[in-house]
Amino acid sequence: MLLSDTHELHRELDVPSGDILIHAGDFSMFSRSLRGIEDFNTWLGELPHRLTIAVPGNHEFFLASDPSRRSLLSNATVLINQSVEVDGLRIWGSPVTPLANAAFGVSSAEDRRGSTRRFRNTPTSLSRMDRRMASSTLLLVQVSISAAVSFSTR
């Protein structure tokens, strides 16, 4: 199950069961409400999925300013320019966005390349990502402004 842009309205969704749930960004409203973030985490724990992944979006300032705050999302694996493998499926998540004033945002392509270099093995585009990832990678999730989620399967 893949969803995004719930903006603290997650409890209004009827989410079907499945093996993996990926929330691809913007579960908060600019990280203004700690209670909203905590409720999102509680909600994730109530869902029936075997694995839950959260890739922050341009609203998740609390994670952009301090990645150690991932602990607030204890019911999900939080991917910030990282991957996780489950049953031979490797899933990569990146929150980098071209919105300069947004969480994880950098305005120019050059700045985005520089921004992502600080993360080990972080590609700067989906095409470069495809070349650098192992052949076992099946799903790539990147939050972007032009589309809520970009994903590619092999």
Automatic annotation (TrEMBL):
One Pfam entry name: Metallophos
Specify the domain of life of the species encoding this protein. Answer: Bacteria
Extract the InterPro entries matched here. Answer: Calcineurin-like_PHP, Metallo-depent_PP-like, UPF0046_metallophosphoest
Q: Which GO terms describe its molecular function?
A: hydrolase activity
In this chain the Calcineurin-like phosphoesterase domain maps to 6-71
Q: State the name under which the record lists this protein.
A: Metallophosphoesterase
The source organism is: Alloacidobacterium dinghuense
Q: What taxonomic lineage is listed for the species of origin?
A: Bacteria, Pseudomonadati, Acidobacteriota, Terriglobia, Terriglobales
